[in-house]
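Troubleshooting: if your tokenizer reports a length mismatch, compare your output against this known-good record of 232 residues.
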Amino acid sequence: MNPIRDIPKGPLLAHSARLVARSLVWAPQTVRRFRRQRAQTTAASGSPGDRPRVLFFYSQVVWQEVWQRPQEIALGLADYLPVIFMSPLQVHRLYDSVPDWRRDFRVDRGHGVRVVQPLILPGEYKLRWIAAVNQWLIWAEACSVLPPEGEILLLSNSPFSAGLLDRVDWAQRAYDIIDDFPAFSWAPLHGRRMEDRWIEVADTVSSGTYALYERHRPRRPDIRFVPSGVRF
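Known-good structure output:
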């Protein structure tokens, strides 16, 4: 069954048209503003250790879906620093698995978790031009919530977020392997290469699944096995 086929075409097309317009008008302005402000604050703030630290957590798992490892990690790490949890949502899933979607809200825990779930175009795993538009939108959405003056740490459990790796001067880049997403039937054809990129450049790599820990250990001997359910 194709879930998109069963969704009313009118709302889907309307959402998609707005997102394309957003990528053409709002996104460039937002990215330019972030770059300009970051360059200014970086030049004025001195050493990175003097900047406020924040964690940007990009998740394949949407906050409002099944409660599992990503949400627990975000809440646990919020005890130590502010967390921005971003999980983009393809438009058709509003009518499918996340009917109670909320775009932006906060969770009161420790230093706080800001949950941001921007809408993106459907079909990104099959058509590269849609993936390119979505990656641009996602980066612009990130620029709209990241503090330009901050020391920003990047954590992701999505191999398909490899496009973020070189977007900004991340203080650290951490990859948490929660599933073999590139093997899924809906994964992009180049999904395995994207994961390889993460494993190659991440400062730290962890896994909550022992089988995946064993699989990736030859390439990353420093990979850490952190079972799900363990307090972070």
